[in-house]
Design goal:
The structure is a single chain. This protein is of the alpha/beta class. It is built from nine helices and seven strands. Strands 3-2-1-4-5-7-6 form a seven-stranded mixed beta sheet. Strand 6 (about 205-210) and strand 7 (about 210-220) form a beta hairpin.
Length: about 230
């Protein structure tokens, strides 16, 4: 987690830019009413918590597999005045538990760990847990349509080793090993197809930086021009 915090703090994966777009969408959609949000793969919430602290959040629920990240999240979320619930779980298991629906579901850099079938299950479960006018915001790494998984890993790790100057060589190697052993990024077209099969609209791409994209999925096309 400490290495990942270095990556976030250095903004190598453009968390700051994506965060600005996420804030714009939340403020646009919930300008006049409080909202509930489920944060899947919430990490330590160091980016999202300050944003939500200045909004009318009705309830916040966060889910993550890292106990150390959740301990930090508990501290960072003290700035929220709404009920906060944190769960140590993987995102699919969390979505299968209970029947509560949410106005917004957010996930960042987590879905790419799922297999193809699990990604399809993820979208189906999300559709069941959203309010009828709710939406999913998904930030994640994607592959190009003509980019095989081995080619993607080679290009990504070449970029990482060249441009992530704040990390040691051992840290860079550890991240590349993690990618090779755990990551299964898909193309935009695959994610769109899976979301559509679950009953969600085609993806609205709100932002893109390199292989990373921020998608918006809802049951009806929202006017995101101001976002």
């Amino acid at each position: 987690w400490q290495t990942y915090r270095k990556v976030i703090d250095a903004n190598y994966m453009h968390h700051a830019e994506f965060s600005a777009h996420i804030e714009q969408v939340l403020r646009s959609r919930f300008a006049s009413r409080p909202f509930s949000i489920l944060d899947l793969g919430c990490g330590d919430t160091a980016i999202l918590a300050p944003m939500l602290a200045n909004m009318e959040v009705r309830t916040y629920e966060g889910v993550d597999l890292s106990e150390s990240a959740l301990a930090l999240a508990e501290q960072n979320l003290k700035s929220l005045s709404c009920p906060v619930h944190l769960t140590h779980s993987d995102l699919l298991a969390a979505l299968k538990q209970g029947h509560r629906r949410y106005d917004a579901i957010h996930t960042s850099c987590a879905v790419h760990h799922l297999s193809t079938d699990q990604k399809g299950e993820f979208f189906a479960l999300v559709a069941k847990r959203l309010e009828k006018d709710g939406f999913l915001m998904l930030t994640d790494v994607t592959r190009e349509d003509d980019e095989s998984l081995p080619v993607h890993f080679q290009r990504y790790c070449d970029w990482l080793r060249r441009d992530w100057h704040g990390l040691s060589e051992d840290e860079k190697t550890a991240i590349c090993d993690h990618l090779l052993n755990n990551d299964l990024p898909k193309t935009r077209s695959v994610l769109e197809s899976q979301a559509r099969a679950a009953g969600l609209n085609d993806a609205v791409e709100l932002a893109r930086f390199g292989w990373y994209r921020l998608f918006y999925f809802g049951f009806k096309q929202a006017d995101l021009a101001s976002s």
